[in-house]
Design brief:
The complex is a heterodimer of chains A (698) and B (629). By secondary structure, chain A is α/β, with parallel strands linked by helices. Classes of the chains: A alpha/beta (698), B alpha+beta (629). The complex binds flavin-adenine dinucleotide. Chain B: Belongs to the FAD-binding oxidoreductase/transferase type 4 family.
Chain lengths: 698, 629
């Protein structure tokens, strides 16, 4: 039989994963075998088989659409037929089709590409796959993968195809639609295209909702949604979007389905295809339109090794269990097609959204490179091999204690580091010495040909960074995006460490202690400030604080003595200053933004203000304490939004443009509070000082 | 008996009646009105005026199960299932497919859980008697009994847990201490007065067919409990053919009422599936619904006047009019009061001339959803026949299993289906298709027209006519299903039915959710055998439908089958409420569903019910504890 996947025969690695590519390579013509294999996925028990076009026909006839169309017709005095035409148009743009032969072709190409670029393999936790297989029969399933790369949904579909699971219907962004051939292929394999924002277009919203409900309720296919809304360009998770989640949960809350299972999927790439693309985007080079030719350009990646990919299917979250305490009969006294969720339900939705992101984070697998990158980030001027190894080893120990999943191979640490440095030689250089230990590792200042291509085309705006600065900065941005993957796990203990400083009490015998409660205010401030950059579930502050404390306790840098009293251990310095150094760039960037606004009070256009700040920080690159990664648009945009949330900035509309205005007293206040946490405030006129992380102090 | 009052009727009414009867005779046996599924309604054999259920119920009826002692499902010498006795169409027939079906459910004829042979009077709890009360009743010459068998026979309804206990030869701590048999309205007034004077708890009972623990004695009742057996109040007091009304004593049993009225060319048309054994007062007290409500209405539509004796006095109106506007409708407090406010003694019902023509029919649909859409349109067009029921696929197949060995009256339906299947209906999935059974009643022309419309609508939803026999068997099934449950219990199966009502757009979702929930909960309870989890739509209304579920499983291996069963039923009820269904369409609340009451309405609304109770019965004489705490 040409059933390629056989749970009994496949070889599992120590994490219970199989390497899909390796399994395929066991066969001659693996890609071809995959493309021609028998494919008979399990069926949801209540599914009525139908053609994809029946789905949208049903949508057109649905109560929700009929109701909405009638309403609009009445309110806007428009003929029903023309609104129905509009509905049809929306649906045609939205809907997926179903062509297995195209899927096979796509699968064939994709595997070929993957053989070439993922030379270390594509790993999947198979025990979860088998559980999934059983669940898919019983309930509608929604996959919610993390979103880091274009590859994500191609990947999930390929894996489903390989494991004989039904192919998901993928909610993809409209922008993909512009890629002529590719969009057709994607559509054929189950993608449907939705607008990024629905705004106030109630007809679009109704059509989209009904379309999604049709598929969930009949279980035509599992669905795939990206809870982060868009690809994260920075290696960190993005704050979840709630709107889509409500659409997905509604059929359950209104008892149209028995249950809906949400499967968080963590897709971890050792090296991202888009690493440079993102970095330049962060530096203000406009994102290339997702055109087919753009993708072909991207095909120059084919020669490179992008390492491995880990796809981890998390435990399914049953909405029935999760929302078990909600009384669904509150929806019994009005027609179900009218959208209406109670406040309580909406709050639960938010909690769930955060839970999904947390689950994704929990099961991400970071590569050793992220550890190396974290260390390298602290030494902008380079580090000796010996020190690098020492620091990586120490940091690995810290992460192990915190149970962060890192894919260390069985090789020795030196070998691992050597391999990484080789793989990322486009970012880091090592000067070769006879004595390996003293060879010097620093961030490469070379710019690849392709990189300069970006810079040439895009430098046309007076306000943007100069191409030179961009080229200088780009490798730092890339490096920090790898470090960022680890920051998700470090942020809580780090914020505790920042909060500690001003609340330490030392007794006569030099024992340093602090009260947990004394940290609350500072911790809260920092969480509030950084909640756009890192994931903090609203209202869970004390839990976050406890997690931070326990992470430090596990690492032995603090210990709890009496109720809520902690001792800071003698050797805490290394860990604490390391954590501070990792997060200082964020705090400094926030502080810089404050300075920008305080110096130039007035009113800014929301659309351009971020670039203005970027430019301003760019002008201060020579100042000690200012680093390249602070130029990241993403970081600065988070800063502005956070300052708006904290009322240091206010927004208002001027005609149609959104304006930002400085609210100086509050902003001043924020800036002062913030300054407290920054050990060496950049003196905007002083020469460059020591690197923020100084190992000699340890 | 109705004799004395009948002579008072006007001549014109008499002649009308005679005409109707002769009309029936003229039409020949094909159209002769009868309900051939119900046992004793064969008007030829049982004389009008007969009262079918004797005072000593146990002489005729099972003490530990449903219905007549002589009628039961049994495995015969040849190993096939047969139905004993001679009362039903199915009686004496062999059902060759039933045993294989049962075996599919995991039944094994060697694994039995036989019931105790008889009531063991030694184990019956000793009565708590109130001597003053008994003396008073003796003084007014009320018939009473403290015989253990009489008390046990009136201590329960027909819920699974009650029967399970009986079969084990066990009893609740509290069963009635004394049985009282009032003979007329005045008796009841005296009885209630005595109960109030001596603080005795009263529980009225009619047929005892409740399936919600409504007649069970509350465990913590310390007072003497007198169960008031209403069945001796069974006269039709008068029939008024001018206004088409009949005043009837509340204890009359359904089949006796219809038989007597039929002799006059009339009927109420109220036919709950339990009509052979349930009483008029019970219908009123539980807000019952009959199969043919589309033509005749539910009990609340039929009732024009009612008398109820409460501790505060008699509740009744002083007129018997079709409708009135005078504040909240008093009758609505009485209907559905479940014996908590007083005793219903006399009821005036609307009656109708017997229909001239009655015809069965059936339609098969490719899927349940198609069927639901069809029923919805039939309801919309207001052309529903007297009864229309849509069975799901499991029930459809279960119905097939009940098919008797081919003989005259049941034409071989399955063969017909097969023929259809290969010819026209290709594409009907035997694991998805389902059947609607139809019962048309009325003037021949009207029936013919109705048939035409219904089949036309059905065709729009891919429904195909599937013959009369199939329809008739569907209705028969509902009368024998309770017998089948007893048979199941012999083979370690617990089963039950329950119902709800739900708006049209939620019918399919609710059915699917509840059936899934049942399966999942059975799994959680550790049930090891296949689960029967099936439903049918049994009534249609403008705004929604009534859905009826069957649930059953073999319990071998479970520590406490009843507890497991209850957990499953409660889960199912929870799912019903969550899916937008009601707490009950016609079974009522009793004590079984009381726990869900607070979820179905607001505290203020429950307060209204409580305050009425407090006003009418401040000492909780009617202490059955039904409806609300
Ligand atoms: C196999 C089966 C099929 C059924 N089918 C139907 C059906 O199709 N439709 C339907 O509606 N129900 C059905 N039922 C439920 C049951 O038959 C009804 O609830 C019926 O109305 C009960 O009548 P009863 O005389 O048996 O009342 P009982 O069981 O004796 O009593 C029920 C309740 O009414 C009270 N009550 C009885 N008589 C009086 C009175 N005179 N005054 C005040 N209170 C009184 C009792 O105290 C008790 O609370 C069915 C039950 C079974 C077992």
């Amino acid at each position: 039989m040409d059933l390629l996947y056989n749970p009994e025969k496949s070889s599992l690695n120590e994490d219970g994963c199989i390497n899909m590519l390796e399994e395929l390579q066991k066969h001659y013509f693996g890609a071809f075998k995959l493309a021609t294999k028998t494919y008979s996925p399990p069926d949801y028990i209540h599914r009525i088989k139908r053609h994809p076009s029946d789905i949208w026909k049903r949508v057109m006839k649905s109560d929700r659409i009929q109701w909405m169309v009638q309403r609009i017709a009445r309110e806007e005095c428009a003929p029903v037929e023309s609104i129905m035409k509009e509905v049809e148009k929306i649906l045609k743009k939205l809907a997926f089709t179903d062509h297995l032969s195209l899927v096979r072709l796509l699968g064939f190409c994709l595997v070929k590409v993957q053989f070439a670029i993922y030379q270390n393999g594509v790993f999947i936790n198979t025990s979860a796959v088998e559980k999934l297989r059983a669940m898919l029969k019983r309930h509608p399933v929604i996959f919610m993968p993390s979103h880091r790369s274009y590859m994500d949904f191609l990947m999930l579909s390929l894996v489903c195809f390989y494991f004989n699971l039904p192919l998901p219907a993928i909610a993809a962004g409209m922008d993909f639609q512009k890629m002529a051939v590719v969009s057709g292929m994607l559509r054929a394999s189950g993608a449907f295209f939705m607008r990024r924002s629905f705004g106030s277009d109630r007809l679009y919203w109704a059509v989209f909702t009904e379309y999604v409900h049709e598929i969930i309720i009949n279980g035509d296919r599992p669905m795939e949604f990206f809870i982060e809304g868009t690809r994260s360009r920075t290696g960190k998770s993005l704050n979840p979007k709630f709107g889509l989640l409500s659409v997905i949960a509604e059929p359950y809350l209104k008892a149209q389905t028995y249950d809906v299972l949400i499967v968080p999927v963590s897709i971890s790439y050792e090296r991202l295809l888009e690493e440079e693309l993102y970095a330049y985007e962060m530096l203000g080079v406009p994102k290339p339109k997702e055109s087919t030719s753009g993708l072909f350009k991207a095909s120059s990646i084919l020669g490179n090794n992008y390492g491995s990919v880990h796809m981890h299917f998390g435990d399914a979250i049953s909405l029935r269990k999760y929302f078990g305490h909600l009384n669904r009969s509150v929806h019994a006294t009005y027609p179900r097609y009218m959208l209406h969720l109670s406040e309580k339900e909406q709050n639960c939705m938010k909690e769930l959204a955060y839970k999904i992101v947390r689950e994704q984070q929990k099961n991400m697998i970071c590569s050793p490179w992220t550890v190396i990158a974290s260390v390298l980030c602290l030494y902008p001027d380079g580090i000796s091999m010996h020190d690098l190894v020492q620091n990586v080893l120490w940091f690995k120990g810290v992460l192990d204690l915190m149970k962060v999943k890192i894919s260390w191979s069985s090789d020795g640490i030196d070998e691992i580091i050597q391999k990484c440095l080789h793989q990322y030689r486009h970012i880091v250089e090592s000067s070769i010495c006879n004595d390996i230990d003293s060879s010097w590792i620093n961030i490469s200042s070379k710019v690849s040909e392709r990189k300069s291509l970006y810079t040439e085309t895009a430098y046309n705006s007076r306000k943007a960074l100069t191409p030179r600065l961009r080229d200088e900065a780009v490798n730092y941005i890339i490096l920090s995006s790898y470090r960022n993957q680890l920051l998700n796990y470090l942020v809580r203990p780090a914020l505790v460490v920042f909060s500690l400083d001003h609340h330490l009490v030392s007794d006569s015998s030099n024992v340093v202690t602090f009260f947990m409660s004394s940290l609350v205010k500072d911790f809260e401030f920092l969480v509030h400030l950084l909640c756009k950059d890192f994931i903090f579930e609203p209202g869970k502050m004390s839990h976050d604080l406890e997690t931070g404390l326990s992470d430090l306790t596990v690492n032995g840098s603090i210990a709890s003595t009496a109720d809520e009293v902690f001792v800071v251990r003698k050797h805490a310095g290394r860990l604490h200053s390391f954590l501070k150094s990792c997060f200082s760039p964020f705090l400094i960037a926030y502080w810089m933004a404050c300075q920008f606004f305080l110096k130039n009070k007035g009113s800014y256009k929301m659309t351009t203000v971020i670039v203005q700040i970027q430019k301003w920080i760019g002008d201060h690159q020579k100042v000690s304490g200012i680093t390249y990664e602070m130029l990241s648009i993403n970081l600065l945009s988070n800063t502005v939004h956070s300052l708006i949330d904290m009322k240091g900035l206010t927004t208002h509309k001027l005609g149609k443009t959104k304006m930002v205005e400085v609210s100086s007293t509050t902003l001043q206040d924020i800036s002062c509070k913030l300054a407290k946490f920054i050990p060496d405030l950049p003196e905007l006129l002083t020469p460059k000082m020591q690197p923020p992380f100084d190992s000699s102090k340890l | 008996m109705a004799s004395s009052e009948m002579s008072e009727k006007s001549d014109s009414a008499n002649s009308l009646r005679l005409q109707t009867i002769s009309n029936h005779l003229k039409r020949g046996s094909n159209h002769l009105v009868c309900s051939p599924c119900v046992s004793d309604l064969d008007h030829g054999t049982i004389k009008p005026g007969t009262r079918s259920i004797p005072r000593r119920r146990e002489n005729l009826l099972k003490w530990d199960g449903w219905g007549y002692k002589d009628s039961q499902f049994k495995i015969n010498e040849k190993g096939s299932v047969t139905f004993t006795g001679s009362r039903y169409k199915l009686s004496g027939l062999v059902m060759p497919h039933l045993r294989p079906w049962m075996e599919e459910m995991g039944l094994n004829i060697d694994e039995m859980a036989k019931s105790e042979p008889k009531i063991n009077t030694e184990n019956v709890p000793k009565p708590t008697l109130n001597e003053d009360f008994i003396d008073e009743l003796n003084k007014i010459e009320m018939e009473i009994s403290t015989d253990p068998v009489d008390r046990v026979m009136r201590s329960h309804g027909h819920t699974l847990e009650e029967l399970f206990l009986l079969r084990k030869g066990e009893f609740n701590n509290r069963i009635p201490d004394v049985v009282v048999f009032p003979r007329c309205h005045d008796d009841v007034e005296k009885l209630v007065a005595a109960a109030v004077r001596y603080n005795v708890c009263l529980i009225p009972i009619g047929g005892g067919t409740t399936v919600t623990l409504a007649v069970a004695c509350p465990d913590n009742e310390a007072r003497c409990i007198a169960v008031v057996d209403m069945t001796q109040m069974n006269k039709i007091l008068w029939v008024d053919e001018k206004n088409l009304l009949a005043k009837i004593e509340a204890g009359i049993i359904g089949q006796d009422l219809e038989r007597d009225l039929a002799a006059m060319g009339l009927c109420t048309g109220h036919e709950p599936d339990s009509m052979e054994f349930s009483s008029l007062g019970g219908w009123v007290a539980t807000r019952a619904s009959g199969m043919k409500k589309n033509v005749y209405g539910n009990i609340e539509d039929l009732l024009v006047h009612v008398r109820m004796v409460t501790p505060r006095g008699v509740l009744e109106k002083n007129c018997m009019v079709p409708r009135m506007s005078a504040g909240p409708e008093l009758h609505q407090f009485i209907i559905g009061s479940e014996g908590t406010l007083g005793i219903v003694t006399e009821v005036t019902l609307r009656v109708r001339p017997l229909p001239e023509c009655q015809r069965y029919g059936s339609v098969i649909f490719p899927s349940f959803e198609d069927g639901v859409h069809c029923l919805r349109e039939i309801a919309l067009k207001r052309c529903a026949p007297a009864s229309i029921r849509l069975m799901d696929n499991d029930q459809f197949r279960f119905g097939q299993a009940l098919k008797p060995e081919a003989e005259s009256i049941f034409t071989s339906f399955m063969d017909g289906i097969k023929k259809f299947y290969v010819t026209k209906m290709k594409g009907y999935d035997p694991h998805r298709m389902c059947v609607a059974t139809l019962l048309f009643e009325g003037d021949p022309e009207v029936v013919a027209q109705q048939e035409k419309t219904v089949y036309e609508i059905a065709a729009k939803y891919k429904g195909m006519a599937a013959g009369e026999d199939n329809g008739q068997r569907g209705y028969m099934l509902t009368f024998v299903i309770a017998y089948l449950r007893d048979c199941g219990m012999d083979y370690e199966v617990v089963s039950e039915s329950f119902e709800t009502s739900v708006p049209w757009d939620r019918v399919s979702d609710l059915c699917r959710n509840v059936k899934d929930r049942i399966r999942h909960e059975c799994e959680a309870q550790g049930v090891r055998y296949p689960v029967l989890s099936t439903c049918r739509v049994t009534q249609t209304y403008d705004a929604g439908a009534c859905v009826y579920f069957y649930l059953g499983f073999k319990y071998r291996g479970l520590a406490d089958p009843v507890a497991s069963y209850l957990a499953v039923e409660n889960a199912a009820r929870d799912e019903i409420l969550e899916s937008g269904g009601s707490i009950s369409h016609h079974h009522g609340i009793g004590k079984l569903r009381k726990q869900f009451m607070s979820r179905t309405t607001t505290p203020a609304a429950l307060g209204v019910v409580k305050s009425v109770k407090e006003y009418l019965d401040p000492r909780n004489i009617f202490g059955s504890g039904n409806l609300i705490e």
